[in-house]
Amino acid sequence: ASIPVVAEEDDASHAALRQQQDRFWLVDPLDGTRAFVAGEPEFTVNIGLIESGIPTLGVIYAPAQQLLYGGAVGHGAFKDAGREPVPIAVRKPPADGVTVVRSKSHPSKRTEAFLQTLTIKSLIPGSSSIKFCQVAEGSADIYPRFGRTMEWDTAAGHAILNAAGGRVVVESGAPLTYGKPSYENPAFIAYGDQSMASTISQN
Question: Could you please report the per-residue DSSP string of 9-37?
Answer without folding.
Answer: TS-TTHHHHHHT-SEEEEEEEEE-HHHHH
